[in-house]
Design a protein that fits this description.
Layout (H helix, E strand, L loop, with lengths): L1 E5 L5 E5 L16 H32 L12 H20 L9 H9 L5 H25 L1 H4 L15 H22 L2 H6 L3 H4 L1 H19 L5 H11 L2 H5 L3 H21 L3 H13 L1
Antiparallel strand pairs: 1-2
Helix pairs in contact: 1-2, 1-4, 2-9, 3-4, 3-6, 3-12, 4-10, 6-9, 6-12
Length: 285
């Protein structure tokens, strides 16, 4: 709850209290249509995300393939691919934030779960929906671009030649940290209570974070920072190289998300003790 109080200099400030942590396990959620509506929204959003972005990747490779009559400098390039990923996240978070929170990424869901923003039930269902949506999205790409899909790698993530496993893992950890840290900052309820325009603008910095991370890490791993994105592409492409490196695209993002949740909750907001206490109380029930 927030109420206006007189601040220094005569300006109105707000006395703010953090909302209570979400229950660790809320079986009653399973009886509410709002949960299933949110799960459907996550499925559709992730499907659209993978469809547009993987099509962009394959389109760029077609345009720049000199052996097939393309121009080496043709297509949208890394900059355009990064804009496709960041722009789609901006659009889809804007469209689904009021329904599901606009996660579209198991790492984001995991980070918010650790911070007690979503329950275990909702987190698990979201992750399943995101992975299924990703598989369907890439499946549509393969169906519509069957002549080029396998030839140009199917948009699957794998570690680029010349980079060590440690470098790839670090790139995924740091990239996901940037994304999830931005999510926490953009959706901070204390900030929203103080600045009414923040909720409207929240999708913009989240999408821009995705854009910037892609610019930095496409040459290393193709940029995962989203286990559903990597999983969907690996399932449909189904070649050994993406599967050999696939663990990087789950372990890295989950570690990055956990660090971001810890940093925001325990360091910046100093509210981690409350969440830890609620975990202990839930375990004792």
């Amino acid at each position: 709850m927030a109420k206006d109080v007189e601040g220094a200099g005569g300006f109105a400030a707000r006395d703010y209290e953090d909302p209570p942590p979400t229950p660790f396990f809320d079986a009653e959620e399973l009886t509410k249509w709002s949960l299933y509506r949110a799960v459907i929204a996550e499925f559709v959003a992730t499907l659209l995300f993978l469809y547009v972005t993987v099509l962009t990747v394959i389109g760029y490779k077609i345009s720049s393939d000199t052996k097939a009559g393309g121009d080496e400098c043709g297509g949208v390039g890394i900059l355009g691919i990064s804009w496709a990923f960041g722009g789609m996240i901006f659009i889809l978070v804007y469209c689904t934030a009021g329904i599901s929170g606009g996660h579209i990424n198991p790492a984001v869901t995991f980070g918010l779960f650790l911070a007690r923003k979503v329950s275990l039930v909702r987190a698990v269902l979201y992750m399943v929906a995101q992975c299924l949506g990703a598989i369907c999205g890439v499946g549509f790409v393969k169906a519509f671009q069957s002549a080029y899909y396998v030839r140009y790698g199917g948009g699957a993530n794998s570690l680029a030649d010349g980079y060590s496993t440690g470098t790839g893992l670090a790139a995924e950890i740091i990239g996901t940290f940037v994304l999830v840290y931005t999510v926490f900052s953009a959706t901070d309820p204390k900030r929203n209570a103080r600045d009414s325009h923040v909720p409207v603008l929240a999708p913009l910095p989240i999408g821009f974070a995705v854009f910037m991370v892609h610019l930095a890490t496409i040459p290393i791993t193709g940029t995962g920072i989203n286990p559903a994105r990597s999983f969907g592409a690996a399932v449909i492409y189904n070649e050994s190289k993406p599967w050999d490196d696939h663990w990087i695209f789950w372990v890295g993002p989950f570690i990055g998300a956990a660090i971001a949740a810890f940093y925001h909750q325990f360091v910046l907001r100093a509210s981690g003790s409350k969440s830890l206490g609620s975990f202990r109380s839930a375990a004792n029930v």
